[in-house]
Amino acid sequence: MDYETIDIPLTKGKSASYLNPETGQYEGPDQAVLGWYRSNGFKGIETGSLLYFMLLSYMLSSEEKAKVEDEIARLNPNYKQLNLPGVYFDLRQKLNEKFKDVFTSSSYENFEGLINGDQKNHVANNLEFLYQLENDSNPHVNLDNHINQLRIILPEITNATFRSLFVVVAQFVSVKLKGKPDILKLPIFAGRSKGFPELIVFEGSTPIFLKIRQIWKQTESLKQFKKIHVDLLSKLSTPVYLVNIAEDKISNKESAYKITQLKVEKVKVGNETLWISPLTGEPVNIENAVLDYYVNQGWEGVFSEALLFKLLIECITKDELFLFQINKIPRYLTELHAIIDQLGSKELLLQIEKVLENGSLVAKLGKGKGITSTAIFSLFKGLGRDKILKLVENYEQRGWPDLFVYKGNDIRFVEVKSPTDRISNEQEQLVINQLIPNDIDFELVQVIN
Q1: Which one of 77, 153, 349, 403 is most buried, by most CB atoms within 10 A?
Q2: Domain stops at, among 250, 278, 299
Q3: 180 vs 313, residue with greater confidence
Q4: 263 and 158 belong to one structural domain
Q5: Which of 325, 339, 247 lies closest to 14, judged by CA?
Q6: What is the residue range of 98's domain?
Q7: What is the pLDDT of residues 115-159, one digit of tens each?
Q8: Residues in contact with 20: Cβ distance below 8 Å, sequence separation at least 6, in sequence order
Q9: What does the alpha-carbon distance between residue 310 and residue 397 come to, in Å, rounded to a whole number?
Q10: Paired strand residues for 288
């Protein structure tokens, strides 16, 4: 079966972001396309995520699952968040070794014969268990939406469709690993699909693979997709679409923040590219060169990315894991509200000094970045209670601007880009969805040589 090319209308934001019709947020093209399909009555999920967990689920026996559940139940509740990732890592390593044994002794052609209706139920039950374990073990991911989609999708997949999906996985794995079956090293499971369709959506029980052109505009990547289609996907009865995003309009959000061009001299020191500090005249990295520019203008600041905000929340709550658990334990937000209301400036300053002195992991990293008690307290004063609560409620680990600068009561977040670099989708979404709506000053500094 040949693939079809289809156009999907989406509202474009700045850079590579598009308005997701399902969430109302500007997101990457894969999530926006998936949202378009879901909002039009389809069910769907990211392909790499589903196939990865399908393979692990197939390898996981009922006995092994029961042992892991018992091990988790025995964990000390106070340290569960710290110990659970280790349990999950050990399980994945064991399943990977079993996977190697199966694929060393059995080709993907024989793999279809191993799959039957009973094993479909076995895999379906394990899928939700492994998704939930990944969700609980990794504070930087939220797979709740995936789990909900799984619950909707799995009951509707027929045994024949299930076997077809497994053969797709097995053949793709066999081709990519070239006789060295290590599932943990597969590019598709590390977010780099190398030409494989990024999404799978279901029209009833019929799966449809979606390859999004905007993600892989390069000729080489499209060649990879076409090769995979000829070698693998075209032999199935499963429809395959190459999706073109028809850009509906350019969002006015692209002018919502200030963009400044800054001339800085570039120098080569050995094999490293550095930039001349406008403050000291010494070669430094590009972020510190821009920070020194602000210092020349009377500001103070730090090159901290997300670390400064993490430290602030740790100082307020006296809990270094607070931010990582905020999406798991809803009452934490209410507790934070009460803590900030009762926290005086003197008490917070004492807590800041204690945290920096006692040296949690985040504090050590922060001190290594030059974060001071003054910077932490300035962030607290500059944001205020309501903005802190909003940022915590929608906390994202990734995408935080490089610099935090402050002067008196004024604060600003600054993202620094070299002449050949551009703001990423993650960075822009944090600015558009969190900083700008909360009236937090942001500036993009594009360095030119």
Answers
A1: 403
A2: 250
A3: 313
A4: no
A5: 247
A6: 4-250
A7: 555 677 777 788 888 888 887 877 656 667 667 777 777 776 666
A8: 26, 27, 31, 32, 34, 35, 36
A9: 9
A10: none
